[in-house]
Amino acid sequence: MQGVLRVVLMFISCVSGVSAADSTTYVFVCDEQTEYTVRASETEAWLFRPQGSLRLPALPGGAGTLYADTDFELRIEGEQAWFGPIGGALQTCRNDRRRAVWEKAKLDGADFRAVGNEPGWHLEIQQQARIVLVTDYGATRVELPLPKPCEDHATRTSRWDAGELVLEVTGRPCIDTMSGERFESEVTVSWDGRVLRGCGRALH
Q1: What is the four-CA torsion angle of 53, 34, 199, 160, rounded to 10 degrees?
Q2: Less Cβ around it within 10 Å: N or C end of the chain?
């Protein structure tokens, strides 16, 4: 389902002229059973629900915070949002910033994402074509073509040797040292004489 949403959103961005860089991704949690992934720009907001996606044009003078069609409206103020039928009761929702980062990566085309600490870093395999490493708390970015993996089924390890960067992913439970979040894989990145260790998961 999420893979389909990613393809739909990439098509939407293409035809509307809105790039990922011009928009913001949210995961608005409204109650224990209701949440929405939203990508909003100054011209429109796409809201993804279990019953289908919904495009809401930005209202004039809304400064990229008010969106509505003939049936529904969405208001975004900082990390909060209100959504519902025109003239009816609106749900109050709050953005889950941690999950929004992962949803943004997925919608931008990442197939796998990993994170680590001290220094803060993250790595993505994007569209099965390239490896992108961002480290030193965002100060350094490395982008390389994705080589074919070498797989060791006995240890459940996949290894990508991109020359100056080597990525190893092992299918073993991993807990983030800062957040305590649980992941499905242990990740090791060897780059620039350093060894970065962290956790990751497939996004599709």
Answers
A1: -20
A2: N
